[in-house]
Protein 1
Amino acid sequence: MSATTTEDRHSHSLKRRLLASMAAAFVLLLLLISVLLWNYSRAAANRTYDLLLAGAALSVLERVSYNSAGPTVDLPQSAMDILALAADDRVAYRVFSPNYGELTGTPDLPVPESLQPSIDPVFYDAKLDEGFRFVYQGRQITSSRGREWVFVQIGQTLNARKAQRDTLFLYGMIGLGAVSLIGLGFVWLAIRTSLAPLRAIADTLMARTSRDLSPIEGDPPLEISDLFRAINSFIAQLVRSRNLTESFIADVAHQTRTSLSALQGQLSLAADANEFDRMRDRLGKAEKQAERTVHLTNQLLANAMVIHRSEDAQLEPMDLRMLVRDTLAELLRERRLRQVSISFDDSGLPEGKAPIRGDAISIREALRNLIDNAVRHGGQENTILIEIDADAQVVRLTVSDAGPGIARADLVRATERFTSINSKTAGSGLGLAIVRSVAEGHGARLQLGSSVLGGLRATIVFPRLLVVALACLLLTMQANAVSARELVIHAATDPGAMRPLVDAFEAQSPGWTITYREYQTVDLYREVRDADPETRADVIISSAMDLQVELVNRGLARTLRLPNAILPPDWARWRSQLFGFTWEPAAIIYDKREFDEEDLPTSHRDLASFIRENESKLRGEVGGYDLRRSGIGYLFATQDTIQSVQAQRLTEVLARANAQSFCCTSEMLDAVAAGKLSMALNVIGSYAMKRDPAPGQENIGVHFLDDYNLVMSRTAWVPKTAPEPEMAERFVAFLLSAEGQSIINLKTPLIPLLLSREQPLGLEDVRPAGNASFLPIRLGPGLLTFLDRIKRDEFLRSWVSSMGGQDYGP
Amino acid sequence: MLLVEDNDELAETILDRLRSEGHSVDREANGDEANDLLRFSSFDIVLLDINLPGRSGYDVLRSMRSRGDATPVIVLTARSEIDDRVVGLDAGADDYMVKPFDFRELSARCRVLARRRAGSSSNVFSAGSFRFDRAAKQAHVDGHQLELRAREVQLLEIMLDNLERMLTKEEVADKLYTFEETPSLNAVEQLVTRLRRKLEGTPLVIKTARGLGYMAYVSDDD
């Protein structure tokens, strides 16, 4: 009991309260400062990243030119690379001219209405599917019709800004928080010092013996002098209470001894009596006295028991009505109750129940005493009425008798110990005191008054036990077994390469079927872009990294929370939405019967020279991707123009050598195997390197260059519209897991990312001799440059015309 | 009768009292010995103290009942807390008395037990001028036969079997009527009133406590 009280007090300690209010003040201050800091952080982050937008806009405007058809633009890679510095942000851009309309990019991006043509950059926020920050900048170019305005508008999502803003804000707040904590520390010290007098009082009291009840002395500070006085008055109360207890013990001793002396006196008188009648008379009195002594002792013991139980006993839910009935049935057997008319009335009980929390033994004792009183004071022709009734809050137990009752003035005194109002009918003087103790032990009240029968009416008012009917909620289990569910994968990649992965995943996902649908890269791109509601996929897999980036840049992808342990390297993931899972270098394959490894060129510069030198030998026997038909081919070719100034020269050389173009790697492999080609460029090397030479393909050699070799990665993402997003996420995680990567390594012609991650470029089994260096193509906005309509048309037109082929029409 | 009590002074006074009333009483002071004695001898009433050397009074009582010994037992205890009494009654005691007790009360309780036992085992119940022959289903006061209807005889039997026990109206109705008859509490009330009137002047009293029930007792036992 004391332990909990101490704890309660502790939790409401003054020190804590003061500290808490100071802390609240600090928090309020921090909140105010945090608002300012937040605005500052946002402005600072915006300034930083507006520079990126401005830089990108400038570099695009620089490449705006005027040709016969009107203004045009050659989108610079640098613009996208600048934007990619905010690595996780999607990009939207647009170039247009008031007189010629949209030139390229996403048409109809939002422009503030109030905007005037200006050569200075204007920044503003706008909402597309999510928040974007735009730059809007114009340039006037000279045309045949005079000066034309061309505007560029570039927008970026806010991830990097938000991250920057949060970082600035967080560091600021951490600093402020630390300062606040130090401040609170000082507050705590101050509180401690000023509360020291209280501690002194506590020490004084602790040091006392339990007998020492003298008032505490000292000169308390003004603020606690009230407390000081209160403690002293409490001590005074304790002194009174102890005196009371002492007088009770003295009373008990007195009562018992008096009673016993009287008994002893009567007995010795009886023993000394000469005449038989006198002796008999004395003995009769002695017997009466013994009866009183027994009654007194019983009552004293009952009193002690009731007090003890009220401190100790556990109150249990019970029905007071049953207890009263049983007790009355017991009592009625007593001979002294035979002439008394007793009735019991429980008709005032709703539903016949009187639920309370109680201790049966104590309540029985109280009821005995009430009835005992009623019998003792009820006189002749007594009637005793016992009633139980209840309402929503309380249960009342009432005992009324037909005796003379107690005068109103004496009612208060009646429940005190050793007080008997009527000396003729006096009992031990403990009866009502016992009843009162029982009532107090039950949190009940004892009310005394006049009964309708004319005598005393004693009522114990118990708090009613509220029976909380607990509604049993039955969980209806879905009885039907989980029906088979479907995970739909749309992929533009060799099904032979994906099948083992799909099978393994299906095997470990009972209740799931996996539907795998194959596409060409561009078809898949169009289907997803146009969001055909009929063909909703859960996972989109494609080898065309640029098209995948374009789709994710549109905001179509769902953010996946993959464990850090399986995340691919930086270059092979974007925005936690797009994930590469293979490592596939572009290689030169050649016919071993035509060339020796040593004779092959070692750099892109040498490659052009090599083909030119062997032009006659290679005529019509060099292969490459048809850039119009193959997404991979286009990707490799455009990346080559970024990496190497030799790219254009190489194209020309190939054209002179009458190079053949193919749709895909497998066709080129077959052609080399069949001796139709001596050499093929930018072939996905993993196929050639990994697969056990098929019969008839033993002659295929794989060659890497020393300056760089592009590496692409097949990528997967989950559309926001995926019907089974969780399973889709698990599938992507599976692709990147150790198990998935090992299946890629062992059962498919692809090379897993994991190998290259755990053992850097650890391709001992597949990596060719020499100093080949590998340059992974990085996922991100940088890949968007060559998807620009004008840029793409221009690139393909130039390629077609170089190859001397048919006219290229977009 | 058998008194099992370890305190010699108390035992002596009880023995004197009961013997002066003409009972023949044996006394044991030890629980084990009392148990052995009860195993082979039979008594009309056993007065059993709880706190005994050897085995406790409860154990003695329990082994009696488990042997199928139905001898009426009055438990004597110094503990006033009712829990003990309930345990005692549950263990198979027929009655209990808390020390210190009034010797007249003790004699009266013994008589009641003897009457209940006599009423159910022999065929004749008698108290003062009142006499009831179970076999003949006839009651006599001072030798004159009382006119009793069948239901009244039934009620009388029930009340005599439960001498000094409080029976609720419902309990009486249950014992009085068969399952098919719908017992009316009103009818029970009227029946009791009629029987009481016929028993006026006899020491047999049926007391009504309104709201509680009925109890029969023999008034001149005091």
Protein 2
Amino acid sequence: MDEKPIPLTQLPISKRGRIIGLDGGQGFKKKLRAMGIKEGQIIKVVTKQPFRGPVTIAFFSCQMTLGRGMADKITVEVI
Amino acid sequence: MIKKIVLMGNPNVGKSVVFSRLTGANVIASNYPGTTVDFFKGKMRVGGETYEIIDAPGTYSLEPSNKAEEVALEMLKNADIVINVVDSTNLERNLYLTLELLEQNKPIILVLNLWDEIKHLGIHIDEKTLEQLLGVPVIPTVALTGEGIKDLVTNIKNAKVNDKIKPTSEEGRWIEIGSIIKKVEIVEHRHHTLRDRISDLTIKPLTGIPIALGVIFISFWIVRLIGENLIIYLLDPIFDNFYLPLIEGLSEYIGPGTIHTLLIGDYGLPIDKIESLGMLTTGLYIPIGVVLPYIIAFYFMLSLLEDTGYLPRLATLVDKVFHKLGMHGHGIVPMFLGLGCNVPGALSTRTLETRKQRFISATLLAICVPCMAQLAMVFGVLGKHGIFYIFIVFITLIILYIILGLILNRFIKGESPEIFLEIPSYRRPSIKATIKKTWMRIRWFLKEAIPFLFLGVLIINVLYALGILQFISNALQPIMISIFGMPGDATIALITGLLRKDLAIGMLISLDMTPLQLVIAVTMLTIYFPCVATFSVLIKELGMKDMIKSASLMIGVAVIVGFLLKIILLGV
């Protein structure tokens, strides 16, 4: 069931989401896409550190930690 | 012309393990000209032909987003053959770089490393089909055990330029990858394994933080255990039973005089390994007999933590705190490395992205992070007075790290980008690769510490003989007493500490000071200046201008802290 788009930081832990948009500079988007964080990719939030600390996500079979600010620039829809 | 083979791949794919399988012992760590990026190179002989093998920095794509990736790209341009190492458990993401490499018109071999792991994970890869689709040899390996490495070596001559993959856009590559994956990979649904659960527990804050404290505590306990035992059962017996008798013989042969003082120290028995201040006694015993064992133990432990994949999790957990100090979670790496020897710590500040982060991390490292030589000084001087005094030194340093970090974060211009770090799966470390890494780091210490200790002993002795040290100490006597509550003679220890901190141990012990005075002296010695070796590395890393700023901070902070400690501890 499709819901309305939310920033990755609001995706509940362990829920799966599909990336529908990347925000930010060209270099930043390019870096994310080359790593596989791209439109259409399904990702999951593993954990979020407290006090707006970094977010750890899982996609394919790898995990990645990224700062809140970066995670805010990734828009997902819950699936 | 020796043919160049370059190993390329994403970070954390076991590339360096493949590299150490291919090269054996003759490996050199070098610095890429004009940059601060380190890489390893070595040689390999196959069927009478010698190849040079280069381990390029890990990269996610050929559109570089940092210095290390730029270097990787440069190396690729000069390569005759490319070995592309990929993580089989993560084929889809790794293939992006593979496709980019295949577009380059270079002979390529694809290595599917961590091949044993895919079975546990319920992944099936049809490597024959993959070979057909990509048009280059595909070799599954388990570099950790050496499985498949022979196959790789015999196939080096079969490396070829692909004729299947055409250059395309980023989007085109992902579409291509999607269609390749559909043909070669089947992933069964799998249950959470024990390893996944450990991975989750160690990165979630509620469980991760207590575990981190435990891991750090146990690591230091093991370092102490290994270090102590190396000293008791190996180094002290060697020094006491073989080396000292030799020196005693030499002492007799030389007889009293300047040469004796210089080489061995004051004439007469017994010869003291720590306090005698001779080049062959103190100059050799302190670095090798006292500091080295702990450095070996420390770097071995740290390399294990790195190779299992624990450090990125720790970096995630501490990211928020380090962000407040102007760095991000990765800032914990220079700090940890610096606890062994500040030189590798200073070198690793390179991994931080901006000037601001590097400046803060290097300055905090030099001021607040005691290396093993400094720790030896702290324990050697204060140990017999009780753990309480050692505790004061550490608390002071920790508070200083935080306060100084907060201040620098406010006042140093520049950006502190956020953390962006891959969290690899936990892996069994390769003992061979771990030992190799440990050795590389210990070499820094051996290369820098011993010459400087020799030089230090020499200079101090010459200055003593000329009466210069006594003169300085007399001149500074009033300042030392009024500001820091220390006798003028402590100046000599501070001057000595410029060269090597561990050399100051013997001097401080022989001075008549109260434990609290010693606390002030030891804390100031730790803060005011790193050793000469670290200093010269920092000049290279930060540049002259920033280093002058950093050094003024060191001295300023040392004076303030020394003065505050005097007021707090001595009450006057």
